[in-house]
């Protein structure tokens, strides 16, 4: 480890990166400094790749042109099979609502620390304000503040964590979450069609789907080459929808062909169907001068559901790669381990 840019701190003392950033530190606290092998590369994160798939949802939903529908289904198949990630355009969510949710979330993060700490993310829990997936005193911390809330079904909510400020936060989040839920349902319908299944197969399989939102704020960092905005991982949900402040620097990177590819996404889809459609490993990096905001919605099957590879997608030539398991047990396993690449898939792997 490069100790020249490290200062020792008391464990658990300086963990709020916004407050830390206000001090204009010239050195980075040790608990945030990654080992050389874990640091982001010097890749120019202002560039993106034109190869990242873009799906026009209107061509799937309107159904007016069979050729357009077929072409877009093929695009979706390629996106899920080769990338595990895609951007969605013409998704149907009102742009004014997207701006509104960005504003109230940014306003929340700009509140005094004393106000945000009224909604603490307690150890081992992923709702509230703080840092998630931290399980040991020597674990490295991400250069990120998080605010996470359970949305649906209502029993997963903790009403004490829904903030009173900004005044329109809760109403805006409710409206936004309803629209994103519709988007997830539509995406799953066409993902099912893309693998030759009936469009309603996932809706029936999922039961009352679980939906949660995590808001991430990445302050500037004087040494972005030493820290990680969000550790590499793949999500535990069926679909993850990512929105970020359009004025933000590119921070999201996905791992493809042994390379970290920088992207500026609208949404991304992460679906597991016996390894045919793979969840993408991704991470976030930070910027020296600019902050970044992202709003992430996770959409997953009911905790009561037993999951296994879909029977229509396995045969003697393509045997199951994952065992049958309870999604609630998987969720507990996922949430009780630190973010670590795709390691959490080992829970269900045969």
TrEMBL record:
Q: Which domain of life is it from?
A: Eukaryota
Tell me the SUPFAM superfamilies matching this sequence.
Clavaminate synthase-like
Transmembrane segment boundaries:
none
Q: Check the record and name the InterPro entries matching this protein.
A: DIOX_N, IPNS-like_FE2OG_OXY, IPNS-like_sf, Oxoglu/Fe-dep_dioxygenase_dom, Plant_2OG-oxidoreductases
Indicate the segments forming the Fe2OG dioxygenase domain, all copies.
209-301
From the UniProt record, which GO molecular function terms apply? metal ion binding; oxidoreductase activity
Does the entry feature the keyword Ribonucleoprotein, yes or no?
A: no
The entry's keywords: Iron, Metal-binding, Oxidoreductase
In this entry, which stretches build a coiled coil? Answer: none
Pfam families in UniProt: 2OG-FeII_Oxy, DIOX_N
In the record, the note on similarity to other proteins reads:
Belongs to the iron/ascorbate-dependent oxidoreductase family.
> What name does the UniProt record give this protein?
Fe2OG dioxygenase domain-containing protein
Task: Please give the organism.
Answer: Dipteronia dyeriana
Q: What is the lineage of its organism?
A: Eukaryota, Viridiplantae, Streptophyta, Embryophyta, Tracheophyta
């Amino acid at each position: 480890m490069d100790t020249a840019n490290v200062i020792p701190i008391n464990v658990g003392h300086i963990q709020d990166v916004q407050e830390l950033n206000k001090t204009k530190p010239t050195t980075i606290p040790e608990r945030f400094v990654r080992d050389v092998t874990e640091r982001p590369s010097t890749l120019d994160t202002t560039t993106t790749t034109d190869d990242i798939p873009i799906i026009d949802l209107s061509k799937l939903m309107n159904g007016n042109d069979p050729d357009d529908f077929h072409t877009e289904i093929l695009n979706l198949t390629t996106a899920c099979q080769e990338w595990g990630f895609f951007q969605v355009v013409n998704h149907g969510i009102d742009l004014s609502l997207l701006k509104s949710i960005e504003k109230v979330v940014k306003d929340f993060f700009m509140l005094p620390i004393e106000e945000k700490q009224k909604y603490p993310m307690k150890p081992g829990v992923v709702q509230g304000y703080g840092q998630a997936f931290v399980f040991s005193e020597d674990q490295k911390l991400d250069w990120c503040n998080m605010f996470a809330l359970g949305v649906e079904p209502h029993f997963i909510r903790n009403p004490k964590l829904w903030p009173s400020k900004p005044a329109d936060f809760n109403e805006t989040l409710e409206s936004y979450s309803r629209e994103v839920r519709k988007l997830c349902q539509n995406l799953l319908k066409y993902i099912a069609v893309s693998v030759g299944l009936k469009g309603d197969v996932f809706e029936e399989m999922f039961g009352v789907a679980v939906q949660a939102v995590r808001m991430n704020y990445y302050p500037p960092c004087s040494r972005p080459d030493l820290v990680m905005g969000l550790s590499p991982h793949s999500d535990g949900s069926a679909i993850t929808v990512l929105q970020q402040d359009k004025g933000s620097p590119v921070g999201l990177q996905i791992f493809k062909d042994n390379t970290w590819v920088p992207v500026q996404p609208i949404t991304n889809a992460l679906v597991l169907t016996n390894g045919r459609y793979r969840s993408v490993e991704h991470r976030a990096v930070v910027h020296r001068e600019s902050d970044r905001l992202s709003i992430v919605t996770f959409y997953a099957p009911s905790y009561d559901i037993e999951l296994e590879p879909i029977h229509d997608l396995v045969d003697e030539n393509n045997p199951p790669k994952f065992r049958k398991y309870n999604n609630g047990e998987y969720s507990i396993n996922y949430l009780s381990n630190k973010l670590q690449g795709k390691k959490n898939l080992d829970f269900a792997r045969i």
